[in-house]
Amino acid sequence: KLTDSEGNSFRAVVVKGIHLHPFPLVESNINNYVKFHAREDDVWIVNWPKSGTHWVYEVVKLLITGREELTDSIKEGTMFPEACAVESLEKLPSPRVLDTHVPLKLFPEEALKQSKIIYTIRNPKDAFVSSYYHMKNNKGDLYDGTWNGYFDLTMDENTCLYGSWFDHVADWMEVLENNPNALVVKYEDMKRDLKKEVRRIAEFLGYPKSEEVYENVTTKCSFGHMKKAKKEPKSFWKPGGSMYRKGIVGDWKNHFTVAQNEKFNTIFNEKQNKLRVSVDFDI
Ligand code: A3P
């Protein structure tokens, strides 16, 4: 049983020293990654949790399929390989769009060598807050503590879900930085100018489209439209919970205490040079 600094419980499965969401069979699924066969046209969306997975997923899906409208299913966007048996992934038609939060050391090696990877980065203060609400509002009773307890859990590299944010970004960026099969997308850049990022993603994927298509994808992937179009399973959330909570930059200011912010900034300043990417806490 895992607990935070205030004694509140926290549900996770520890695999190779990393705390993961307690999906059934997650340990054996990850151990079976040695049998995972990557395809050259696979597209992986990789990030530390709550960094824009569903957002980028919908952009990619609209571009790849040429569909004009989002599907209403939210499930389509949560094909976490760590939550599935390798065999079920084999049955998916190409091009597969897969997403994962695993740190580099748990990622299937073949996929790293052969497939396209979009790594999304969101400033960690907002990602931590978003993750807190995800854990708290989830019907899986993932966490029953307070923001203060969750902050401590997340700042501690030994208990942070999916591993320390700093290591996640630094390790992934080291292998992706000069990899032509990889694209780094920042949540804050999508907030600033979504159409520009949609165009970058389309060109990277090899699906260049017209301005008209970029315009449509930008409209359909706005926060308001996604929140309206996507049906969220009632079995997943407690009342008030949502995958589309606020969708803004800077909500951390409503949660971080002055002391928490100082603690965070001290560690951030120490580790910043390993990240190889600038981080925007504001836009
Ligand atoms: P908040 O909890 O801060 O609102 P993920 O998909 O990785 O789980 O990330 C979820 C976060 O991305 C949530 O953040 C959600 O609101 C935000 N998000 C999802 N779609 C978005 C969109 N179209 N525009 C802006 N933010 C979006």
* Radius of gyration computed on alpha carbons: 18 Å
The strand line-up of the biggest sheet is 6-5-7-8
- Name of the CATH first level: Alpha Beta
Write the CATH fold name: Rossmann fold
Classification by helices and strands: alpha/beta
Beta-strand residue fraction: 5-15%
| Total number of beta strands | 8
Number of helices: 12
Going by CATH, the architecture would be 3-Layer(aba) Sandwich
Uncertain runs with pLDDT below 50, 5 residues or more? Answer: none
**What's the SSE pattern?**
EEEEHEHHEHEHHHEHHHHH
Roughly how much helix do the residues carry, as a percent range? 40-55%
Distance between the termini: 39 Å
What is the mean pLDDT? 93
Number of domains: 1
Question: Descriptors for this entry?
Answer:
Sulfotransferase 1C2, globular, 12 helices, sulfotransferase activity, 10% strand, 283 residues, two-stranded antiparallel ribbon, binds adenosine-3'-5'-diphosphate, 8 strands, Rossmann fold, alpha/beta
